[in-house]
Amino acid sequence: MSDEKSGLETEFWKxxxxxxxxxxxxxxxxxxxxxxxxxxxxxxxxxxxxxxxxACQLLDRDSCRCGDYENRTELVPDCxxxxxxxxxxxxxxxxxxxxxxxxxxxxEAWHPLVSGDPESVHRAGIxxxxxxxxxDAVHPDDVEQCLASxxxxx
Length: 154
What we know:
Blueprint: H1 12-15, H2 23-29, E1 38-42, E2 49-55, E3 59-60, E4 65-66, H3 72-75, H4 97-102, H5 112-115, H6 120-123, E5 133-134
Parallel strand pairs: 2-5
Antiparallel strand pairs: 1-2, 3-4
């Protein structure tokens, strides 16, 4: 059974592993939260990742989507392209659909594939809308002043 509007199989994420998804299914899995586009700091001793409020220069902080998705790796050489061959998604937020599906968990009720509404992720307070700051707004020496304490992960 498929969704008439999207042409996607209904609840495909419950039956398919990430590497079995079509390109359209893969892209639809993104909830549009923008959390993956926040800069992260890694503790040199523990290896623990800490999110900041600083967003990639390409993130549209209102829509929480990449402003130039097709050219992002050329414009931002250290942009990480997610694909099903990545062995781990541990650096992604625990709420991320890619991570959830990889770990055998279902999507949250606020996910647009479940709710049918792309704004549900924002209403649920999951997205970085109204929270993220432009990376250009902060001097590199002041990045540690921009830690994201609201992200309650793992």
